[in-house]
Specification:
The chain is mostly beta strands and 326 residues long. It has helices spanning 2-23, 97-100, 319-325, and strands spanning 27-31, 36-44, 48-53, 62-65, 69-73, 81-83, 104-109, 117-127, 130-139, 153-166, 171-175, 178-181, 186-208, 214-239, 243-262, 281-282, 289-301.
């Protein structure tokens, strides 16, 4: 009976020691600059490693990019140094980081100067498959003469903005049988809001047939203030991870306030119909449809820091600030 009790006590102590030794097992992260971090590794992901500092097992979880790590020494693997490359990286984050990191594009409507305005837009990625685009248009400048017959001189400004949803099937790279799309490339649909303020000046002619058969000219000034909401479908292509080329077309509804004044004698029952709003085409209150379309060329670059979200694990400080503080 005594021997059995002693054997039980010995076995219990041994199990306890083994459990304690495993609970305090120490891993080592060796960075590429040869700095060694004593840690308890929690997770090895495709692009990063999550761990807690060995001296602070109840502290926050820290994240370090695998690009910064040369090798790992994991307790329980016979103290073997393990190359971080043994854990396969996501191809989107390694050989294609130069592609994936460029998630912004500033664009120009290539044909806008031909219709007396300049239109620009900026697109950036919110998350994969979901981008945002905002644009600005200045009405007036352009190439070629104004409508010489009517002496037409438009002036104004418009802004346009809305979410952009990529539809997939726009493969840009293929690695190890996996296909990935550039975050700015492919077919998409966009919900866009357009706000505009526009004025036009032109000449109207009226004839007097009361015995003298004369024709007189009257200056007409129109002010437009309006709003349009449309749904667009388009496609954007990437060339050399440097240039975007894309087209779009859309349809929606519009509302507008129009005021007309004359520089001379007002023309009774004067009706001036012109669907051009430069940001879109609008057919008036009787048929309040808005139509859009365009062809853009853009330049790709990294999204500015203030538009990108810092990477934080478990709502703790970012991995870079955590490492600097140690």
């Amino acid at each position: 009976m005594g021997k059995s009790r002693n054997h039980f006590i010995t076995t219990s102590i041994t199990c306890l020691l083994i459990s304690v030794s495993h609970s305090i097992a120490q891993d080592i992260i060796i960075k590429k600059d040869n700095e060694q971090i004593k840690a308890k590794i929690i997770e090895i992901g495709t692009t990063e490693i999550k761990f807690k500092y060995f001296d602070a097992p109840d502290g926050p979880t820290v994240v370090i990019s695998k690009k910064e790590v040369k090798s790992l020494k994991i307790e329980g693997k016979a103290d073997k140094l393990i190359s971080v490359n043994e854990f396969k990286d996501d191809p989107m984050s390694v050989s294609n980081s130069a592609i994936i990191d460029k998630t912004s594009s500033i664009k120009f409507n290539f044909f806008s100067p031909l219709s007396h305005h300049l239109a620009f837009s900026y697109e950036w990625m919110i998350r994969p498959g979901f981008n945002w685009e905002a644009g600005l248009g200045i009405v007036g400048p352009g190439v070629g003469a104004s409508d010489s017959y009517m002496n037409y001189h438009p002036k104004g400004v418009f802004v346009r903005t809305g979410p952009k949803f990529l539809l997939g099937n726009s493969s840009d790279i293929e690695i190890e049988g996996a296909r990935y799309a550039h975050p700015l490339k492919g077919r998409y649909f966009k919900i866009e809001t357009i706000i505009y303020s526009l004025s036009t000046d032109h000449s109207a002619y009226q004839s007097n047939f009361n015995g003298n058969n004369t024709t007189s000219s009257v200056g007409v000034h129109n002010n437009y203030l309006g709003l349009a909401l449309d749904i667009q479908y388009g496609r954007q292509f990437i060339f050399g991870n440097f240039i975007t080329v894309g087209w779009y077309m859309g349809v929606g509804y519009g509302m507008e306030d129009k005021a007309t004044s004359f520089s001379g004698t007002p023309i009774p029952n004067y009706y001036d119909w012109d669907p051009r709003r430069y940001s879109h085409t609008f057919f008036g209150e009787d048929f309040p449809m808005a139509f859009t379309g365009g062809f853009n060329i853009g330049y790709i670059f990294r999204t500015p820091y203030w538009l990108s979200k810092p990477r934080v694990s478990n709502r703790e400080p970012s991995r870079h600030s955590m490492l600097r503080d140690q």
